[in-house]
Design brief:
mainly alpha; globular
Amino acid sequence: MQRLLRAGLHFYLIGLIILTLGIALTIQSALGTSPFDALLVGLYRTFGLTIGSWEIVVGTTMLLLNALAEKKQPEYVAFLTSFLTGVGIDTWLFLIQDHLAPTVWSGQTIVLILGLLFSALGIATYLHSNIAPNPMDRSMLIVSELTGWNVSNARVAINATLVIVAFLFSGPIGIGTLANALFSGMIIAFFLPYINAMRQKSLPKAERAS
């Protein structure tokens, strides 16, 4: 059991490290980020603080709204994901912002593609940990339950709302936002079986799926 927990924790932390690198790269590309990250950047541009700080604030707000919608106690463990993601974003931006800030379209495109790949790989990795649910993913499931929509339509509705709010706060909406909406799900799905195979190898034989 302890080895199973350690394996999950390793995938969780490594996944968040990779994910936040991907987010930082999409921000540095200046071609547009995911709808959620665009909101964070927009809030940073409007009110100050750091992008990572807004990740924590918005994530915590969604955590509380999710609990209110479900009429349950908040999933406090989900705060850990928002906190670590916020710290990771700020750390990566501090490390790369002076060294990786392309100004020509070709360089921006390369950085954007790398950001999409790292983000998807990070999500695929931490999803296999089964630790600390993401408030955004929980919101998607709640909207699906309350409206009767399928999960895909619920996510589209949330992303559309985030894009509108991000636009109002001058968030970076661009081709990267569209690319994220169109391709992130497919890239995550591509990585999932490989990450699952790696996780299975890290478990004791008795714990492996048949």
